[in-house]
Amino acid sequence: MSIIVTDLTVRYGEKIVLNDISLEIESKRWTCLVGPNGAGKTTFLKALLGMAPYSGSIQDKGIEVFKSHKRNVAFVPQHPQIPQGMTVAEYVMLGRSKRDGWGNESLSSRSFVHKVLMQTHLFGMQSNLVAQLSGGEMQRALIARALVQEPELILLDEPTSALDLHHQISVLNNIEMLKEEGVTIISTMHDITLAAMFAERIVVMKEGKVLLSGASQEVIHSPELKRAFDNRIDVYTLDTGRPVIVASKEKHL
Amino acid sequence: MITEHGAIAKIWNWRITVFCGLILLAVAIAAVSFGPISINFFKVFKTLFDLPGGSTGQDRTVIMELRLPRVVLGILVGSALATSGAVYQTVFHNPLADPYLLGAASGAGLGATIALTSTNHNLYGALPIFAFMGGVLAVFTSFIISGKFFADPNSLLLSGIAVGSFATAIQTYLQQRHSAALRPVYSWILGDLTSASWSVVAWSSVYIAIALIILFSVAKQLDGLMLSDEEAYSLGINPKRLRIIAVAAATLATATAVSASGLIGFVGIVVPHLVRGLTHRVTNRSLITIAMAGAAFLVLADLGARTLLSPAELPIGVITAFVGAPFFLVVLRNRRKVTQ
Fold first, then answer.
1. Of A68, A186, A208, B169, which one has the fewest beta carbons inside 10 Å?
2. CB atoms A77 and B6 under 8 Å
C-alpha cells in the first residue's frame, strides 16, 4: 500500500518549511527527493519518520504516521552521530533492536548481522571502531544497520554526499539490495544524475513545495526540474541514453 | 569475534559481570574484616552471619554498628556515582561528563553550607536533607533554564554549569561570612563515609535502589541515545523521554549519594571508563557491572582511608583520586593503543 501525503504542512515557529504538500509514494519502489538546499527535503523525511510535528496527514498503510508506533522505518541520516568507542558489530547490531527487542542477542540475530556484514563488505571490520571508519565504510555500516533492521520503509538523507564516485555507486548498489527485499525506499539526493540512475520516481521540491513528481525519466526532462534550480542546470543525454544533469556554467558567471 | 556458527559474538560477556560481583564480595568482606581495631577474620565472619562463636561486646559493635553500615554505604554511594557517571556520559555524548555535571554537587554543597553556617545548631542534623534539596533544586533549575525541556542536551549542560557556578558563588559568600564553618564545610566537600550509620543507610538505600532499578531497566535502550535522535527514534525509542528518565534517575542517585557522604570525586568518571576501557565495550549492558565496580572501588578506597594512617583517617576523596588517576591514565593509554 502506498504512503499517502495530504495537505502536509510543517512549521518551525513562524517559518513554514513544508507548505501544503500532497503526494502519493508508491510502496516497494525507490523515490528520490531532489531540489535546491532549503527545499524542505530533510524535513519531509523527518515528517515521514514521525519526528516533525505536522498538520495535514501522512497515511502509511492507512494509519496516520505520528499515531503509529509499530512502524518499522529505518533512517540513515546525512550526519550520523558517531558513538565513541563503539565497534562496527555493536553498531550494526543496534539495528536488530526494533525487531528483537533491546539487548536481544539471540543466535539468529547474530547470524543475520554476520550475513549482512558479509553482504556490505564489512566482514573482518566488525571489531573496528565506528569512529575510525572511512566515509565509504561508515556509509556501508549505516546501510548494514538499516538492512538488519528489516524495515518496511527506509529513509536516506543524502546517502552519497560524502563519498567519492566509486563509493557512491557501491553504496547505492547496497541500497538497491533493500528494494529487492520489497522495502520502500525514499531518499534525498543532490546528484540528480545518480537519482535518475537508481530511483524509479523523482519528486522535485523547492521552497517547501512539490513542483513535480513522477517517473524518473519524465521528471528529468521536464521544465519544472530546471525551474526548481532557477534554470541553472543543463540536462544532456549520453549515447547510451542515460541522462546527465550538470550545473550550467554560463549562468554562474 | 566470529563463532563457528557464522554469527557475530555476543556484545556483552556476562561472565565479566559475575567476575565483578565476586570482586565486590571479596572487597566487602575484607573491608568489614580489617580496620584500626584488629579482629580475627573468622570471628568477623561468624558475627556477620550470626553463627556461634562470633564476637560479642565491643568487637561486635565495631563490626555491626561501625564497619558494616560503612561498607554498605560505600557500596550504595559507589554504585550510585559510577552508574550515574556512565549514564551522563552516554546521554550527553561526552566522555568527560560526571555525575556532578548538572549542578547537583554545587547545589548540594550550597545546601550543606546553609545547614553548617546556620546559627541554629539543630540544622546540623538536617545536613543531608539540605544537601539533597540543594542538589535536586539545582538540577531542576538547570532543566527549567535550558528551556524546551531537554530538546537539546548541550543547552542543559551549559545551564547546569551556570547554575552550578551561581550556587558555588553563594556558598563561597556564606563561607566567608561564617569563617567558623570553613573547616566542616571543607571536610564535607572532600567527602567521607564516617557519618555512616544504619539510619543513613536506610534512607539512602531507598532512593538509590529506586534510581538504579530504573537505570538498569532502561540500560539497553540507552545505547540508542549514542545515536542521533532520528536514528534512535527509528530504532524504536523515544529519545527525549528516555533522556529525561535517565537524567532524573541519575540525578536522584547522585543527590542521595552526595547527601549521604559529601562530594566524593573521581568515581563517576574513572569507574565507567575503567570498565569500558578494560572490556573494550561501550554498551550500557555493562551498567550493572559498572555499578558493582564503582561499589568495589569506593569500599576499597574507604578501607585505605581508614587503615593507611590508622588511627587517623584520610579523606576518601584523596584516596579515590590518588589511586584512580594513575590507573585511569594506564587504561586510557592502553585503550588508545588498541584503537590506533
1. B169
2. no
